[in-house]
Amino acid sequence: MKIGLSVWGVAIIISLIAKLAYDIGYFKAQSLIEEKLSQIPVTHQVLTLESAQRIVSSALKEDINNPKTIVTNIIDNNNKLSTVIIENNNQRKIGWIIEMRLFFVGDLLNDNGYNLTESLELQHNIKR
C-alpha cells in the first residue's frame, strides 16, 4: 500500500512540475509574440475623394472614368465606417462606405435606435 501511494504521489508531483513548466513556457512565448506584434507599424487607410468615387462607381456599376453619381464630400473619414455625400441629377444623398469596400445608400441606425442618416441630412440641409 505504501508503494502504491508513493508512486501515486510521485506521479502527481511530476504532473504538477510538467504543468508548471508548460505554463511558464506558454506565457513566455505569448509575451514574445505580443512584443513582435507591437513592433509592427499599424497603417490606416485614408479615404480620399478619388478612392471614395472609385468605390461608389464600382458599387453602382457605373463607368469609373465617367460616373453619373459623384462623391461631393466626405463627412466622416473612418477606416471602419465612412460617411459621404453623393450627388446624382442635382439630388444629394448620404452614403456609407464600410471598411473601404462596401457602399450603400439607406438608413443607418445606431445602438439606441437613432437614425444617423436622417440626422446627417438635417445637419447638411439635404432634403429627401
Structural overview:
The protein is 45% helix and 20% strand. The chain has 128 residues and is of the alpha+beta class. The protein folds into two domains: 1-42; 49-123, Nuclear Transport Factor 2, Chain: A (Roll). A hairpin with a 3-residue loop joins strand 3 (91-98) and strand 4 (102-104).
| CATH architecture group name of the largest domain | Roll
The biggest beta sheet reads: 4 strands, antiparallel
Give the H and E element order: HHEEEEH
Total of helices: 3
Can you tell me the number of structural domains? 2
Unreliable segments (pLDDT under 50, ≥5 consecutive)? Answer: none
Structural class: alpha+beta
Tell me the Rg in angstroms: 28 Å
Q: N- to C-terminal separation?
A: 88 Å
Query: Which class of the largest domain in CATH terms?
Result: Alpha Beta
Strand tally is: 4
Question: Considering DSSP H and I runs of 4 or more, what fraction of the residues is helical?
Answer: 40-55%
> How much beta, percentage-wise?
15-25%
Describe the global form.
Answer: elongated
Per the CATH scheme, the topology name of the largest domain is Nuclear Transport Factor 2, Chain: A
How would you state the average pLDDT, rounded? 85
> What order do the strands of the largest sheet run in, or round the barrel if closed?
1-2-3-4
Transmembrane segments: 6-27
Keywords: Membrane, Transmembrane, Transmembrane helix
Short descriptors:
128 residues, alpha+beta, Nuclear Transport Factor 2, Chain: A, 4-stranded antiparallel sheet, 3 helices, 4 strands, 20% strand, transmembrane, transmembrane helix, membrane
